[in-house]
Amino acid sequence: MATKNTKIKPLLKGVLFGVLLFAGLYGNIVLHELGHFSAASYLGLDPEMHLFEPAENPTGFGFLAQDNYVSYTSATTELSFNDFLVALAGPLANFILAGILFVAFLMIPNTKPTLKAAVVMLMIPSLLSAVANLFPNPGVDGYVVWSYLR
Ligand SMILES: [Zn+2]
After folding, report:
1. What's the CA-to-centroid distance between 50 and ligand 1, angstroms?
2. Nearest to residue 45, comparing CAs of 91, 88, 85?
C-alpha cells in the first residue's frame, strides 16, 4: 500500500501543478483585462469586457486562439492620456499580483516547499504577462504606452 501511495502522490502533485499553471494563466488574463476595465471605468469611458472571443488570427492553440480585450469609447481618434492610462493598467494589474505573490513566497516557511513552488507557478504567468504586454509591438498594450510616451 505504501508503494502505491508514493507513486500516486507525485502524480497528483503534477496534475495539481498543471491545473494551477493553467488557472494562473487564465486568472492573469482576466485580472489583466480587469485592470484595463477598471481604469476605463474610472475615467468614465464606458468600457466593455470581451473575454475569450474567437481571435481574428487564431494561433492553433486553443487557449491562444481567443481574443481578450476591453473596448471603450474615446472622444478622440488621436492617442490620448486616457488611452495611455487604460493600456498601462493591464500590465500594472499583473505586476501588482506578481508583487503580492512574491511577498507571499517570502512569507511561506521553507518547510513548505510544495506551497512555495505553487506560488512561484502562479507568479510566473503574472510576470510574463506584465513584461510581454509592455513590449512596443502593435497589438499589445506596450505599443500604446510607448507610442504615447514618444
Ligand atoms: Zn492589455
Report:
1. 12
2. 85
